[in-house]
Amino acid sequence: MSRYALDKAAIVLGVAAMVSALFRLVRGEGEPVRLVLVTNTHLAVLLVLGALAVAGGILGGWPGRALAVVAGAGFGAAAVIQLLGSAGGPKLLGGGLTTMALFGGFAIGLLAVALTPRANPQ
Amino acid sequence: MISTEPAGVQARLTRGCLAMVRVAVALMWIQNVSWKVPADDFKALRHFTQFAVDEPVWAPFAWLVENLVLPNMTLFGWMTLLVEAGLGAFLLVGLATRLWALIGIGQSLAITLSVLNAPHEWHWAYYLMIVVHLALFATAAGRAYGVDGVLRPAWLASSHPLARLMVRAS
């Protein structure tokens, strides 16, 4: 495992988050392709935190890693907020369980790649 | 037939297809957490779970649902929601994929035993759910363009108990 592989993984996860914002374009209620319900608020979360993860991957080193941790923790917090909103709590991000699972995926992925110790460069 | 394609192209094609299957299965679980709503005390999930009793597939499972699951539906609703959200999240990024593929087989079996005999159901949908998770497990699909593939070398090189666990889970 190289530093490059981990940084590239952060970039790929960030890009995937931004690409998943395209679900915002599917608007019809009950549409079979509406796999994830993305509102304007969710769109902002996906684009901002996704861009942060990409920036972290490009930057590399400890500053890049810190950015990836922030992005992963942000997705984790967003997932918890979505869950609480769907359980009757305040819908700070608009609620929605599909986005809870989506945000959760990006959170665990980013935190795993950012917090795994890198091999020392030879 | 002997392939004339370079080995690298074949490998990339295989890995790409595996990643697509993994992400598609993740999106299936993600879409289907949408109606497991805690705020309405899992009303829709309770409706489908009731089929295990009304249209039983296997008598011991029907007994279990009637006497354990339905009387404690709030607890089982939360368990279902968290397991299916976990399936969507972990399979999406390909982390601990083999473990989650096994969990997916278990969850697909539970769904099959609940609704296989329900009206208007296509039984092959449930058989396919089981076998697609079997395929994800057999191929260790998270190693193909997934987080497992990136982190596995570090886990293999480490003697930390969590790393050893992740080697088995991936």
Fold topology:
The complex is a heterodimer of chains A (about 120) and B (about 170).
Chain A: H1 3-20, H2 40-59, H3 61-86, H4 97-115
Chain B: H1 7-32, H2 43-54, H3 59-69, H4 73-93, H5 97-115, H6 123-138, H7 147-157, H8 161-169
Low-confidence stretches of chain B: none
Helix amount of chain B: over 70%
Largest sheet of chain B: none
Largest sheet of chain A: none
Oligomer: heterodimer
Please tally the helical runs of chain B, counting DSSP H or I stretches of 4 or more residues.
8
Task: Provide tags for this entry.
heterodimer, A: mainly alpha, 4 helices, globular, B: 170 residues, mainly alpha, 8 helices, 74% helix
How would you sum up this structure, described in words?
The complex is a heterodimer of chains A (122) and B (170). By secondary structure, chain A is an all-alpha fold. Chain A has one domain (3-115). Chain A is 68% helix and 0% strand. The longest helix of chain A has 26 residues, at 61-86. Chain A is globular. Chain B is mainly alpha-helical and 170 residues long. Chain B has one domain (11-169). Helix content of chain B is 74%, strand content 0%. Chain B is built from 8 helices and no strands. In chain B, helix 2 packs across helix 5 (97-115), helix 5 packs antiparallel against helix 6 and helix 7 packs across helix 8. The longest helix of chain B has 26 residues, at 7-32. The radius of gyration of chain B is 19 Å and the shape is elongated. Chain B starts with 6 loop residues before the first helix and ends with a helix. At the A-B interface, helix 1 and helix 4 of A face helix 1, helix 4 and helix 7 of B.
